[in-house]
Amino acid sequence: MDMSKSAARRSRRPAVEWPTVGVAVAIYGAWLLLTVFWEALPLWLLVPLGAWFVAWQSSLQHEAMHGHPTLNRTLNTALAWPPLSLWLPYPVYRLQHLRHHRDEHLTDPLEDPESAYFTPAMWARMPTPVRLIMRFNMTLIGRLTIGPAIMIGFFLADEVKRVIAGEPGRRAIWAWHLVGVAAVLVWVVAICGMPLWLYLVGFVYAGTALTRLRSFAEHRFADQPEKRTAIVENGGLLGLLYLNNNLHVLHHVRPAVAWYRLPALYRASREQLVARNGGLVYDGYRDIARRYLVAEHDDPLHPRAG
To answer: Is there a cis peptide before residue 113, judged by omega within 30 degrees of 0?
Structure first.
């Protein structure tokens, strides 16, 4: 696809993309209502709803870092910044995700911050029980159950090292982030009276698991970089949750396109996109679950890195 078209389309963007603003209003409005009226809801309903809106905010943050819903980066950052998930500062997420968009390095554990692979040196240092855990994490059931803990643990350990090392800007990012975390917890625990464990498990951990479902099969190593990115068709309700990021090849080819324009653009260019990624296409998330619920999506040892 002609990448120059992306710049042309961007220049014709509206000053405000109202569908994305509407999503933001829905996310923050529903989150406030859920935290205020949490006692009126049974757990079987509260937890899926809490997880949904925390995960949906992650999708909104993804839109914001790609320049939506306004032409003003400061406004976009303000819209995406509130740390509903607690553990992930938006500025760090943005830095890592934009680095992930260097497609020539996709899946490389040394270059791609979103890689699920390990270099031979990393793998050799792992005790056998840890290797077994990492293999389990390459199954869908593993990614949804222990995957959030692994991702959050690795992320926080790396961030602690960066803060201690005095990496420029990191301490300021975390200082502001902790202010936001404190505000969220004061609202949830002190004002709304929700038990901390319930928010951590039912909103944060379950919401992170939903985001792990989206990213589970997005990328897979191939010798040609353009064949490392998948397409999940027929996303259904999860397509809305992920703001059509399930059409992942298209997002990597045209990262500046707003989420609500992706389906029509995908239908118009499906043949080229499928040819581009070598036919790495799934028929919805049920198809992914059928293939990889208990089977490894790929070997966690990267065949080229390191």
So the answer is: no
pTM (two decimals): 0.94
Other beta carbons less than 10 A from residue 298's beta carbon: 16
The answer on pLDDT for 7 being more than 50 is: no
pLDDT tens per residue, range 176-224:
999 999 999 999 999 999 999 999 999 999 999 999 999 999 999 999 9
CB 218 within 8 A of CB 228: no
Residue pair 160/175 in contact (Cβ under 8 Å)? The answer is no
Closest C-alpha among 105, 171, 140 to residue 296: 140
Half-sphere CA count of 299, side-chain side, radius 13 A: 8
- Which letter does DSSP use for residue 278 in this model? T
What's at 179, amino acid-wise?
A: V
Q: What is the average pLDDT across 39-47?
A: 98
